[in-house]
Amino acid sequence: MKKIIKCGQLFTAEDESVQHNMCIVIEDNIIIDVIKENLCKDEGEVIDLTDKFIMPGLIDAHVHVCLDGSPTVDPMYHKLPEEVTISAMLEAKKDLMAGFTTIRDEGGVNFSDIAVKKAIDNKLIKGPRMFVSGPALTSIGGHGDSHFSPQILNASLGIVVNGADEARNAARLNLKYGADQIKLFATGGVMSFGDEPGAAELTFDEMKAALEIANLKGRISSAHAHGAEGIKNAIKAGVTSIEHGMLIDEEAMEMMVEHGVYLIPTIIAAERIIEFGKKGALPKWMAEKAEECLKNHGKHIKRMIDMGVKIGFGSDAGCAFDNHGDQGFEFELMTRYGFSPAGALLSATKVNSELLKLQNQIGTIQPGKLADIVGFDKNPLEDISVMTECSFVMKDGEVYKS
Q1: What is the pLDDT of residue 277?
Q2: What is the C-alpha separation between 309 and 241, in angstroms, rounded?
Q3: Considering only CA atoms, which of 92, 88, 142, 128 is closest in space to residue 111?
Q4: How much is the pLDDT for 15?
Q5: Phi-psi region of 167 (alpha: psi -120 to 50; beta: other; left: phi over 0)
Q6: Domains, the chain
Q7: What is the per-residue pLDDT for 190?
Q8: For residues 396 and 402, what is the distance between their CA atoms, to the nearest angstrom?
């Protein structure tokens, strides 16, 4: 049966323009036409959204469904693997209800992200389309490793690797169990105790070995990387996207342009840590690291926009006080940091679909694409804050929120 969506304002994300009084014609789960309303025949179920701003389903390229916004990751180690997976299902559904019809999970524990993806794909549960990593690769004492006593084993957020051979094995293991990409921890981080965000951790040889496996399989990859040296090492090793990139330098920016590497800036993650650190809800050392990372991030983002770096949308949802379902605030932050409202919307649609190599399926509202469509009660190009208030969600031709 056909569905006809009548749109008052339509942002197809093919470019920055907005069309008025349009119809989207859907058959099963595929968009078959986008035409003027006066040319549209009401042959099928009519969904009247003439009072809304309609655009493609949003894509968040950096979330962690195994995390629930708790101040630290420690509570997760008190849960059974099954509990973590059940919680992850609920967090993923929050993302869908916020308009994110596709998410890229940037590292889970016990392959929980892969389990949730399979359950969604098999229609056992409701959730967004998921692009998953499995556990990220890290180093001993690196971002993602734990600092528990030595006798406590298997308490790392990622897979700890030492040397190129172990990195290759870990990459193969993730792909074996259903990962779509390989995720690396190239530098220290903000929420991890005992390391520095600017310090390189995985070596070039370790990253090169892991990414060799990803590239052989035709898969993309990502690297958590704040510091310039770690960013450069990851780019040289062949990574697809840099996550955060808050302590980047000019040379690394130029390398991103040269190699076509994407940036996912995740402004909200540091902003939330600073906000709640001031309230005393987070350790002082964590807030201080976040402040150092965010200090020049806006200047760097503006520079990279001017240089033509491909910048996508990512929220790091699940990290401290960065709750799933609330990540629409990142759009407002992006406009504060140099993006036009339209540019911010494109980052979470067309740009991210290209990053994930899914541009033939999602990211724009065009004939032949999957019917991932969301709506807002106001025009975000006039008031970007409305992106926290999604009022209509269709994923794959099915309405989940109206």
Answers
A1: 94
A2: 11
A3: 88
A4: 97
A5: alpha
A6: 2-57+364-401 (2.30.40.10), 58-356 (3.20.20.140)
A7: 94
A8: 15
For tokens 């990593």, what's the residue? 133
Q: Which two tokens stand for residue 380?
A: 């975000």
Q: What is the mean pLDDT of each run of 10 residues along the chain (402 residues)?
A: 94 98 97 92 90 98 96 85 95 98 95 97 97 96 83 81 97 98 96 90 98 96 97 98 98 98 98 96 94 96 98 98 98 98 98 98 98 98 98 98 96
As a whole number of angstroms, the distance between CA 398 and CA 28 comes to: 9
Q: What is the reported pLDDT for 266?
A: 98
Q: Which two tokens stand for residue 51?
A: 């009072």
Q: Let me know: does 197 contact 247? Beta carbons within 8 Å.
A: yes
DSSP bridge partners of 221: 182
Residue 250: its pLDDT value, please? 97
3-state secondary structure the chain: CEEEEEEEEECCCCCCCCEEEEEEEEECCEEEEEEEHHHCCCCCEEEEEEEEEEEECEEEEEECCCCCCCCCCHHHHHCCHHHHHHHHHHHHHHHHHCCEEEEEECCCCCCHHHHHHHHHHCCCCCCCEEECCCCCEECCCCCCCCCCCCCCCCCCCCEECCCHHHHHHHHHHHHHCCCCEEEEECECCCCCCCCCCCCECCCHHHHHHHHHHHHHCCCEEEEEEEEHHHHHHHHHHCCCEEEEEEECCHHHHHHHHHHCCEEECCHHHHHHHHHHHHCCCCCHHHHHHHHHHHCCHHHHHHHHHHHCCEECCCCCECCCCCCCCCCCHHHHHHHHCCCCHHHHHHHHHHHHHHHCCCCCCCCCCCCCCECCEEEECCCCCCCHHHHHCEEEEEECCEEEEC
Rounded CA separation 301/337 (Å): 7
The answer to whether the CB of 69 falls within 8 A of the CB of 320 is yes
